[in-house]
């Protein structure tokens, strides 16, 4: 289990900062994403009772590690987290990127131990949800149970999408698909779908997509020359979303 010390995060003006662990599900700006909308106030209060919040993870700090006994799932409240597994030959394989409102740790359910490690890519605030308590509460709240099943189904679908991406698609398609995925996830959080900052490194992108760092950089440069997007280090501006979708679908030569 993550060993995070609880602390009050207050800025110089005395106001609670963006990473305040004492925020609750009822007033969290992400509750429409990570909670079932059907929950009423009383049900949200019951869920709130089992959620644990601690100090933010700092960049590079682990939330949990591969093969650690499974006990909780986690919802990202701010920042971003990278999931990765160590292969049989000792290499790191990035398996996913998680942004605010998204849940991770479900890969530990099957074998009662985490199948991957999770590490903060930047300062990140996370809500910890003990799985045994979540199971008990889900039995009393059918809408919560359905929502959790939907999250697991989404996880499976995304894993299958990644396998398809790595087995068939070109480098251009892989990078375009990732950019569109981040764009869509930003839109869900009511942020700009066209302008965003990549929290992950080019190395992590290449690892995740099965590409070299040089290839990722070449593809992004090519997209910029084509007027598909502009790139300023980690800042991305999608200029032509339709063309980017065409590239991702393999219907537009690049």
CATH class of the largest domain: Mainly Beta
Q: Which structural class should the secondary elements be placed in?
A: alpha+beta
CATH architecture name of the largest domain: Sandwich
| CATH-assigned fold name of the largest domain | Jelly Rolls
Shape: globular
- Poorly predicted tracts of residues: 1-21
Order of helices and strands: HHEEEEEEEEHHHEHHEEH
Number of helices: 8
Report how far the terminal alpha carbons are from each other.
46 Å
Proportion of helical residues: 25-40%
Describe the structure concisely.
The chain has 254 residues and is of the alpha+beta class. It contains eight helices and eleven strands.
How is this structure best described in words?
The protein has 254 residues and is an alpha+beta fold. It has 2 domains: 31-147, Jelly Rolls (Sandwich), CATH 2.60.120.10; 169-249, Arc Repressor Mutant, subunit A (Orthogonal Bundle). Helices cover 39% and strands 19% of the residues. The protein has helices at residues 31-34, 41-50, 131-140, 142-168, 171-188, 202-209, 213-225, 241-249, and strands at residues 52-53, 62-64, 72-78, 81-86, 92-98, 103-104, 117-120, 125-130, 195-197, 229-232, 235-238. The protein has a 4-stranded antiparallel β-sheet with strand order 1-8-3-6. Helix 3 packs across helix 4, helix 5 packs across helix 8 and helix 6 (202-209) packs across helix 7 (213-225). The chain is globular, with a radius of gyration of 19 Å. The model is unreliable at 1-21 (pLDDT under 50).
């Amino acid at each position: 289990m993550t060993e995070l010390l609880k602390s009050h995060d207050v800025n110089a003006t005395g106001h609670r900062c963006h990473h305040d662990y004492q925020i609750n599900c009822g007033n969290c700006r992400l509750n429409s994403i990570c909670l079932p909308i059907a929950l009423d106030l009383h049900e949200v209060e019951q869920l709130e009772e089992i959620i644990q919040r601690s100090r933010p993870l700092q960049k590079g700090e682990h939330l949990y590690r591969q093969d650690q006994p499974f006990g909780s799932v986690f919802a990202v409240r701010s920042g971003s987290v990278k999931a990765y597994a160590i292969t049989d030959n000792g290499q790191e394989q990035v398996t996913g990127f998680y942004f605010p409102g998204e849940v991770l740790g479900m890969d530990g359910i099957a074998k009662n131990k985490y199948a991957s490690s999770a590490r903060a890519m930047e300062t990140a605030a996370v809500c910890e949800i003990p799985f045994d308590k979540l199971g008990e509460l889900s039995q009393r709240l059918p809408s919560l149970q359905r929502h959790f099943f939907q999250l697991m189904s989404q996880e499976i679908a995304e894993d299958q999408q990644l396998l398809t991406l790595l087995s068939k698609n070109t480098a251009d398609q892989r990078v375009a698909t990732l950019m569109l995925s981040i764009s869509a996830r930003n839109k869900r959080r009511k942020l700009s779908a066209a302008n965003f900052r990549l929290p992950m490194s080019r190395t992590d992108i290449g690892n995740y997509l099965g590409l070299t760092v040089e290839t990722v950089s070449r593809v992004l440069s090519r997209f910029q020359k084509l007027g598909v997007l502009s790139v300023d280090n980690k800042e991305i501006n999608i200029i032509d979303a339709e063309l980017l979708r065409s590239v991702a679908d393999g219907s537009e030569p690049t």
